[in-house]
Specification:
By secondary structure, the protein is an alpha+beta fold. Helices cover about 50% and strands about 15% of the residues. Helix 13 crosses helix 16 and helix 16 packs antiparallel against helix 18.
Amino acid sequence: MSLPSKLFRCFVFFTLIPLLLCSALAEAVSLEEKVVEFEYANGLRLMVVDRPETPVVSAYITIGVGSVHETSETRGVAHLLEHMLFKGTKVLGTTDYASEKPLLEQIETVGSEIDRLRLNPQSDPEQIMALSKKLQELQADHKRFVVKDVFSKIYAENGGVGYNAFTGKDLTTYLISLPSNKLELWALIESDRMQNAVLREFYTERDVIREERRRSYETSPGGLIYETLLANAFTVHPYRDPIIGWHSDIANLSLAETRTFLEDYYAPINTVIALVGDVRPAKAFDLVNQYFGSIPPGTPVPNVAANEPVQNAEKRVTVFFDAEPQLSIAFHKPTLPHKDDYVFDLIDQILAQGRTSRFYQNLVEDLKVATSVSAYMAPGSRYPNLFVINAVPRYPHSAEEVEQAIYSELEKLKDEPVADEELLKARNRLVTDQLRYLKSNNGLARMLTSYQSMVGDWRYLVNYQNEIEKITADDIMAAARAYFVSKNRTVVTLIRGENNNAPKS
């Protein structure tokens, strides 16, 4: 069916969708013309989109390193560094770095010795206690040099909003939106952070993250079931490990390992910057070159060598927790730019997105066996990942009943071609969702840096609608038959009971 025919049918069934589709097509075409790219001698990539309508700029810095790039010795370090890089530099975040530095070195010496002794079961507990007291004294003395929240305060005082960062399996991103006449301030701050970050308050922050882990995973039913799902679905690939790290990982991360990871990878060769808003490309190029151009390239982030073996048997785990039952089912799948990744975007829309989705209509509304059913792709996008289905049974129905109802819906995808109207609706939703992102400065900056880092070409955005248009009902049936099979799935059921596995300290 031709695109004009599809648009006509779209008008018949969904009155406003054609206008949005045309807008999306125009936006994609104009985007390819509007994105101006630069690459510097040190490997840094810059993308600029000039949108002069309002005098603001969204600035995204994405480093192509995440928890998937950690080793067994450094699990949790990328997330820890996200915290640490808010602590300041040799200039910002300190009242006197020259006087602070010797104290930081003492703190590291004592802290490293405590970590070494704790790993040795023959160590003298009194020696550890004495060193711990010494560390507390040094940390208390160090507080006189610390200027808290220095970056966020400077940005806020200069009109910046949305200052934040996030670490994922594949990427780490720092972001801010600020008045366009403050862009040089952004370049000064962020280039200083890339070159001169100081990992102050390391041991204090490490304890903060251990508590974050307890709160977000070990005492959260949702966090616990998700972490258990990944740890069992993957046997070899580092996608199995939580971004925050396992409890013992966090406790034993050293300052030296953290500094090495930072110095190697948080560098221009692994960095993509997007500036979207009221900014001229030539001016942006000169500004970024002035502040970032002389920074040493750093070390390219290596590709993950581990390949997850094909799963040849169902994996099934029961988690006990004092909460209402939950169910999580995961199927291995390819990632972008594989054709079936696009197919799964449509499957996700058809099965789980919105009140007209099959899961909602059949499991929540008709059968009333579940209070909610959702689906998503996880845990990353750089390497083959999972299609995950979560469900909460509706009392008095059991998780087993919900599970069987889910499988019934998956079987329908294998045996019955998706109707033209339903497939068209799913396509339209995907395209309009993308359009919303493209129209937002923040959304566009995030998508540009993410896809450039993971796929190696941000033009995935431009080609997305064309690829989605190619997907047929037969493609969906083929994918369902290939991936929705028992030997390819991992099932985690959470039932009420006592969790005896959470660390006590």
